[in-house]
Amino acid sequence: MGASLTRSTPLRSNAVAGAPRGAPGESSHPARAGWSFVKPSVIPGFGLTFGYTILYLSLIVLIPIAGLFLKAATTPLEQIIKIATSPRTLKALEVSFGSSLIAALVNVVFGIIVAWVLVRYKFPGRRLLDAIVDLPFALPTAVAGIALSTLYAPKGWVGSLFSDKGPLWQWWHGQTWLPFGLSEFSLNWKIAYTPTGIVIALIFIGLPFVVRTVQPVLEEFEQELEEAAATLGANRWQTITAVILPRLTPALLTGFALAFARAVGEYGSVIFIAGNLPNISEIAPVLIVIKLEEFDQAGAAVIAGIMLIIAFVMLLVINLIQAWARRRFGNV
What is the structure's pLDDT at 171? Predict the structure, then answer.
C-alpha cells in the first residue's frame, strides 16, 4: 500500500531525451533564446517602471531643455554669434566656469582631509562636526551669501584683517627687516565683491558633495591593505599614494563632478558676495537674469544654451575619466 502512495510521476523536460543541451530547436532558457531589450530578471514590472522613468525624465529634464533650445533657435544666427562672442558674455562664462573649477579642485583637497578625519579618528565633538558638514545642504543659499558677504566684507571679521590699514597690513609694514623693500608691498586684499569671493562661496556650497562621496569609501576601506604595505616596507607617503588614493580615485572624481556641477549653476549665495560688476565679477546666471529683466528672453536662452553645452561637455569628459578610473583602479 505504501508503494501505491509513493508512486512517482516523470518530470517534464524541455529537452528531447538524448539530445545534447543547446541543440537546434531546443532551449533550456526560453527567455534567452533570442535578443531581448532587457536582461531576464525575477523582479517584475520593468515595462511600467521604465515607462514612468522616461515620462518623468521627459517632463522634468528633456522637455524643458528642448524648449530652451527651441527658444534660442528663434534668434537669427548672426544675433546668436553676436551674443555668444560679446566680451560681457565671454567674461561671465569665464568667471562662472573658472571659479567653479577652482572651487571644485579645492574641495577635492580639503574634502578628502575632512572625510579622513571623520572616519579615522575618534574625538569629542566628532558627530557635531559630521553634522556641520551637511549645513550647506540645509542652509538657504541666500542666507549663506549674506553671511559670507558680511564675514568677508572690508569691515567684516575676516575681511578687515586683509583690508587697507588692517591688522595684517600694519604687521606687514612694521617688518623693517624684510629685504628688497617688501615691507612697502601693499597687502590691501579685497575678498568680497571680487572673483575671490565667488570662489569662497562656491567652496562653501560644494564641500559636502566631496565629503559625503569619499566618506563611505573610506569607511569600507580595508586597513589590512595599509598594514600589508607597511609590512612590505612602504612608508606613510607611499602607502597614501600607492594604496589609498588609487582606491579613492573614482569617488574623488564623482565628488568633483558633483561639486563642479553644483557650482556652475549656483546663484543665490554668489550674488551677495560677487558684487556683480560687468566684466569683473559677474557670473553667467546673473547675466541671464539681467537679460530676462530686460525682456530679452531669446538672449537669455542663448546664454543658457551655451552654459548647458559647455557644462554637458565638461561633465561628459569627467564621466569618461571616471569610467577609466573604475576600470583601472577597481569599481569602488
Answer: 61
